[in-house]
Design the sequence.
């Protein structure tokens, strides 16, 4: 039996899904990270930097020379600089390696502080800290208290690098101590499992919770084309779907007639079996909307650590919009705005929008996000509130219209624009876009553009991609409305 080296992140991968851990060890070639992962790591780094600044005497343990060197450096600091907070303190016990965000000396021991970019304590944070605690105590480090240091979303940044109050420290000592008793069993189970063949585990909520798994594409490839997982799950329908799964039904097309009691689910089943899309034209009522018609999409950025005065963690701040304008003559115009100055972009976004969008005509959007963004702008700028409020009243959300009237067998039970658009306007596939193909990638591109270290050529490329992406979505809405009007 081979003894596998485990790190805390491997154990946490196993906590999410044992198959994920197995694949990480044996099939790392299959890993495909989504655009959200790079953003998550960047956010984590920013948060750690600000958290460490609260311990000005702290010393960072470098990982540049590998795990063993980091463990030795930690031991040296403990021996030679007692009383000094240590960042990324590294320990190994039971062949498990952990790195502690902040190990803070206190009377008769240490405080173990895990820094997270979330706004509350989650179960996986407790498990994460339990692994740390188990390893540190096994390595002879007395832990007096365990804290989860997370973002306080009520914080409003006053500027001048003043981040006092950004973090909330939650004492999780007792619950983590209780959990840490289970860690040896997790560790034993994972080592045993890693000496076996790949596990068969069905996809489910664990694939995106707490994080998006990097093997989703691989596991999807093993699923039947119309997996039951794609069935929409309105409230109160879970029992029926669980019963079908328990009976071994994996494909929507194999659900026996009469088993589904929810109309939407039955609709999806019927269309999937028929293999042809359905548009309930009589329910669309799109012709009631006059011209000019506007099609609006915002791109926003949010920061765990706010960089602009008077903003709060994770508040969506618009930096870009695209708007197609369809005239009664059929002529299509396009307007757009993208603020890459690096200054707070919200006001210029709002002003340019008010200036561009005329006084009348419906403003189509997809989902409620544009309304949320307008509401935030209304709350922020009282002098623009009246004009913005008028725009908000003209919004028409296409999502519920599509959800009520249209389904295509190739939409995996989802009416997101990325699933609907390719079935209606295949020529507008997202594959033709560059690196920016979703909101996460748009946020990452924006951050790169406003970063002074990004070269001019790269800034230009990313700017082009951002403009193309946002324009693509509003053009997509034009196509959707055209389809609904046929
Ligand atoms: S995609 Fe889902 S089932 Fe597959 S390894 Fe990841 S978490 Fe497990």
Sequence:
């Amino acid at each position: 039996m081979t003894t596998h080296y485990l790190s805390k992140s491997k154990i946490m991968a196993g906590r999410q899904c044992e198959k994920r851990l197995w694949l990480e060890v044996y099939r790392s070639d299959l890993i495909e990270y989504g655009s959200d992962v790079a953003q998550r790591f960047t956010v984590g780094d920013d948060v750690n930097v600000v958290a460490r600044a609260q311990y000005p005497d702290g010393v960072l343990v470098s990982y540049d020379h590998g795990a063993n060197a980091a463990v030795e450096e930690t031991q040296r600091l403990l021996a030679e600089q007692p009383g000094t907070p240590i960042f990324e303190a590294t320990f190994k016990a039971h062949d498990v390696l952990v790195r502690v965000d902040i190990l803070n000396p206190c009377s008769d021991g240490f405080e173990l502080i895990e820094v997270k970019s979330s706004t509350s304590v989650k179960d996986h944070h407790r498990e994460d800290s339990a692994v740390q605690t188990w390893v540190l105590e096994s390595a002879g480090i007395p832990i007096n208290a365990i804290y989860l240091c997370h973002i306080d979303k009520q914080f409003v940044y006053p500027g001048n690098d003043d981040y006092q109050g950004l973090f909330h420290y939650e004492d999780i000592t007792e619950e983590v101590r209780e959990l840490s008793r289970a860690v040896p069993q997790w560790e034993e189970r994972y080592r045993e499992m890693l000496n076996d063949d790949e596990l068969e585990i069905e996809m489910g909520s664990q694939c995106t919770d707490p994080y998006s798994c990097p093997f989703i594409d691989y596991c999807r490839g093993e699923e039947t084309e119309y997996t039951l997982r794609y069935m929409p799950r309105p409230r109160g329908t879970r029992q029926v779907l669980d019963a079908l799964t328990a009976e071994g039904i994996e494909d929507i097309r194999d659900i026996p007639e009469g088993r589904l009691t929810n109309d939407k689910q039955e609709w999806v089943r019927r269309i999937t079996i028929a293999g042809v899309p359905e548009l309930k034209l009589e329910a669309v009522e799109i012709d009631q909307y006059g011209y000019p018609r506007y099609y609006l999409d915002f791109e926003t950025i949010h920061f765990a650590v706010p960089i602009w005065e008077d903003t709060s963690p994770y508040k969506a701040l618009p930096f870009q919009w695209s708007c197609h304008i369809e005239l009664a003559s059929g002529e299509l115009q396009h307007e757009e705005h993208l603020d890459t100055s690096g200054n707070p972009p919200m006001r210029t976004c709002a002003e340019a929008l008010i200036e561009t969008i005329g006084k009348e005509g419906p403003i189509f959007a997809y989902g409620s996000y544009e309304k949320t963004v307008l509401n935030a702008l209304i709350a922020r700028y009282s002098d623009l509130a009246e004009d913005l409020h008028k725009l908000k009243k003209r919004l028409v959300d296409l999502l519920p219209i599509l959800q009520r009237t249209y389904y295509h067998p190739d939409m995996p039970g989802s009416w997101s624009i990325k699933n609907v658009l390719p079935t209606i306007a295949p020529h507008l596939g997202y594959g033709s876009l560059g690196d920016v193909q979703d909101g996460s990638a748009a946020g990452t591109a924006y951050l790169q553009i406003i970063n002074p270290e990004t070269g001019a050529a790269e800034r230009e490329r990313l700017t082009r991609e951002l403009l193309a992406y946002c324009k693509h979505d509003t053009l997509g809405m034009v196509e959707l409305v055209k389809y609904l009007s046929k």
About this structure: Residues 286 and 485 are 6 Å apart (CA to CA). The chain is about 40% helix and 15% strand. The first helix runs from residue 8 to 16. The chain has two domains: 6-17+40-193, 280-486.
